[in-house]
UniProtKB/TrEMBL annotation:
UniProt keyword annotation of DNA damage present: no
EC number(s) stated in the UniProt entry for this protein: 2.4.99.28
Annotated Penicillin-binding protein transpeptidase domain residues: 311-516
Family membership noted in the UniProt record: In the C-terminal section; belongs to the transpeptidase family.
Domain Penicillin-binding C-terminal: 591-672
Keyword set includes Transport: no
Enzyme kind, highest EC tier: transferase
InterPro entries on file: Beta-lactam/transpept-like, Glyco_trans_51, Glycosyltr_51/Transpeptidase, Lysozyme-like_dom_sf, PBP_1c, PBP_C, PBP_transglycosylase, PCN-bd_Tpept
Reactions catalysed, as given in the entry: [GlcNAc-(1->4)-Mur2Ac(oyl-L-Ala-gamma-D-Glu-L-Lys-D-Ala-D-Ala)](n)-di-trans,octa-cis-undecaprenyl diphosphate + beta-D-GlcNAc-(1->4)-Mur2Ac(oyl-L-Ala-gamma-D-Glu-L-Lys-D-Ala-D-Ala)-di-trans,octa-cis-undecaprenyl diphosphate = [GlcNAc-(1->4)-Mur2Ac(oyl-L-Ala-gamma-D-Glu-L-Lys-D-Ala-D-Ala)](n+1)-di-trans,octa-cis-undecaprenyl diphosphate + di-trans,octa-cis-undecaprenyl diphosphate + H(+)
UniProt protein name: peptidoglycan glycosyltransferase
Signal peptide: none
Pathway where it operates: Cell wall biogenesis; peptidoglycan biosynthesis
Length: 675
């Protein structure tokens, strides 16, 4: 055989051997690829169910870190998302030494633990130690099931899948969120807050050991019910790091108590999708004080109260959406409900008119009947008061001057200005803004009213109320000029106070009241010392409450709440700047004191009808102003002979509207109940 022939034969043999070797490697490689493909497909079509981990509880805290209110998760657990970076390192050390020493290197299933458990089972005939890793425990916590061999196998596959998807750190975070810590408490953060009253980032060694031990037997080891068993379990965990056992468990159950001081805000945040622990701007002591004030006074029949207190920066200090509710099923949050504001929008109509130079506080306006297209407004007391200043028109809340002022600036301009400042009006039936806005003809929320009146305290600057703490720094918008804000505050400081109350000099309260059409809503909004307080009274279901008014019903509560707040220095307390020169065409008239009704007083209950149905006349008495007086009962002028004391014979029991007008057209009114 020649050299060439021998070379060809060697080459052919080598090629044949290589081909045979490649054919031998093909099947293992193909099997591996198929297995990987199957694993990826299984992971894609059967992803882990993380719904339990995503269902969180909500805990509200006040600005001082005290608990305000809370709500369990949708499945009834006190579960809070917990990350390993937010947990004390001592806890993590104890957890891994106790539950999974090789956690950081195995793929979700620890082969050494499995072999040890199998060997002990074969040797002793029963399970001595389990082979579950933290990943396998997490899989079982995500989809709870009975402890069976089939369940163990499923947990193993899910553990590998969890490690594949989320890595070691992700699996650890899931376990920290789901670990049962006694009763309905799940997760290390919830457990730390419940048993020790603080966050898990500063756990002691003994506290860490208890939280590590609890998931093994969360019911039998509950420290509030079985303290001795919990203490022994804690000692066993500490033995893993050669630490001395504690003599007692230092629980702080009272510090972790969850009051129910802010249910309305809690429901509002829950509907907004907020979960976890939320630190709010509320002050629990002030919140409780406001609730106490509201609940101490009987609300309108089948009605309730609501109140909002804002700091100067717009942060909410108290939020009471429904207190003293006597309306079955009417548990709406009136802080966020859309309601008619009555006359509470008038200061902002005049403020924009001041800014545009169309009016000043001492401009003379005429309060008399006028028709605006198809709209004919009238005053609450059904009396027109003739020539008056803007100052008095706003202080006495006369309707016609406010409608004229809105007509001057334009209803569309007014609504657009509010919208640009983050306040929207809800118009009936999608209609365009109209002059009826001046008298409450558009829906508004208490939050919006709080923002508007808070703008007066901030010199015309406006920003939406916030419950975040610390209050976020945001760029406010300008509702109107500082001068206009000062002028409005100066006017509102002279508004008539509720019966029996006085505007203390050191408080310098500026406020406005409002009553919606049909007596469905009674409002009072006040500004003093940097604080803004808004109070509402009425029926949450929107039904009328005959006889209610903002001045008589809501204003006294607003004043009580304001008087509990500390006096803060305010630039708005500085002397008001001199008003600009008035237009030469405007006339200035000195203000005079008008009449007021002595009897019957506003809100009185007058006995007139006997058991046999006969009625006794009700005497009428007024003082002040310029006589002679003209009396108007329920819109009808009363005929009174000269020299005879006026009296009125009611047609029947019920509410009646009594008004008096003096010789110069100034008037006063009262609403009384006859029975």
């Amino acid at each position: 055989m020649t050299f060439v022939q021998r070379g060809r034969r060697v080459a052919f043999t080598t090629l044949a051997r290589f081909s045979k070797s490649r054919r031998g490697l093909f099947f293992p490689a193909a099997g591996f690829v198929a297995l990987c493909t199957l694993a990826v497909a299984a992971d894609y079509f059967f992803p882990p169910d993380l719904s339990r981990a995503k269902q969180q509880a909500l805990i509200l805290r006040d600005c001082n870190g005290l608990n305000l209110d809370a709500r369990v998760s949708a499945d009834g657990s006190w579960r809070l998302t917990t990350r390993s970076v937010d947990v004390d390192p001592a806890y993590l050390t104890l957890l891994l030494k106790t539950e999974d020493r090789r956690f950081w290197w195995h793929p979700g299933v620890d082969p050494f633990s499995v072999m040890r458990a199998a060997w002990q089972l074969a040797l002793r005939g029963h399970i001595v130690s389990g082979g579950s890793t933290l990943a396998m425990q997490t899989a079982r916590l995500l989809t709870p099931h009975r402890h069976t061999w089939r369940g163990k196998i499923e947990d193993a596959f899910r553990a590998i899948q969890l490690e594949w998807r989320y890595g070691h750190a992700g699996v650890l975070d899931l376990y920290l969120t789901l670990a049962p810590e006694g009763g309905s408490i799940e997760g290390v953060r919830a457990g730390s807050l419940r048993w020790f009253g603080h966050e898990p980032e500063r756990l002691s060694l003994a506290e860490s050991a208890l939280l590590v031990a609890l998931p093994r037997r969360p019911t039998a080891l509950r420290p509030d019910r079985h303290p001795d068993a919990a203490l022994r379990a804690t000692a066993r965990v500490l033995a893993n790091v050669n630490a001395a056992p504690p003599s007692v468990l230092a629980l702080r159950l009272e510090a972790a108590r969850i009051p129910h001081d802010s249910p309305s805000l809690l429901a509002h945040e829950w509907r907004g999708g907020v979960r976890g622990v939320l630190r709010t701007s509320l002050d629990r002591a002030r919140q409780e004080t406001v609730q106490r004030i509201l609940r101490a006074v009987s609300p309108p029949r089948r009605g309730g109260w609501a109140a909002l207190v804002l700091r100067r920066d717009g942060s909410v200090m108290a939020w009471v959406g429904n207190a003293g509710n006597e309306c079955p099923g009417c548990d709406a949050d009136m802080v966020t409900a859309w309601r008619s504001p009555g006359s509470t929008m008038k200061p902002f109509i005049y403020g924009l008119a001041f800014q545009q130079g169309l009016l000043t506080p001492d401009t003379i306006v005429h309060d008399n009947a006028e028709r605006f297209s198809n709209y004919t407004p009238r005053n609450y007391d059904r009396v027109f008061h003739g020539a008056i200043t803007v100052r008095k028109a706003l202080q006495q809340s006369y309707n016609l001057p406010a409608v004229r002022a809105l007509d001057l600036i334009g209803a569309r301009y007014f609504a657009a200005t509010l919208h640009d400042n983050g306040v929207d009006l809800r118009l009936p039936g999608g209609t365009s803004p109209s002059l009826a806005i001046a008298l409450g003809g558009a829906g508004v929320r208490m939050l919006d009213l709080g923002q508007l009146y808070n703008a007066l305290a901030r010199g015309g600057l406006s920003s939406p109320p916030t419950i975040s703490w610390p209050a976020p720094k945001s760029q406010p918008t300008r509702l109107f000029s500082t001068g206009a804000a000062r002028q409005i505050l100066s006017i509102l400081r002279g508004a008539p106070m509720p019966v029996g109350l006085a505007n203390a000099r050191d408080r310098d309260l500026a406020f406005k009241t409002g009553t919606s059409y049909g007596q469905r809503d009674a409002w009072a909004a006040g500004v003093c010392g940097g604080w803004t307080v808004v109070v509402w009274g009425g029926r949450p279901d929107g039904a009328p409450s005959p006889g209610i008014t903002g001045l008589r019903l809501a204003a006294p509560l607003m004043v009580q709440i304001m008087n509990t707040l500390p006096i803060e220095p305010t630039e708005m307390g500085a002397p008001l700047p001199a008003l600009g020169e008035l237009s030469p065409s405007l006339e200035i008239l000195p203000e005079r004191q008008g009449p007021h009704i002595v009897s019957p007083p506003d809100g009185a209950v007058v006995e007139s009808f006997a058991d046999d149905g006969s009625a006794t006349p009700i005497g009428l008495e007024a003082s002040g102003g310029a006589q002679p007086y003209r009396w108007i009962i329920n819109g009808r002028t009363l005929s009174v002979e000269s020299g005879v004391t006026p009296s009125w014979l009611p047609d029947g029991p019920g509410f009646a509207h009594v008004a008096v007008v003096d010789a110069q057209g100034r008037g006063a009114a009262a609403t009384v109940r006859v029975r």
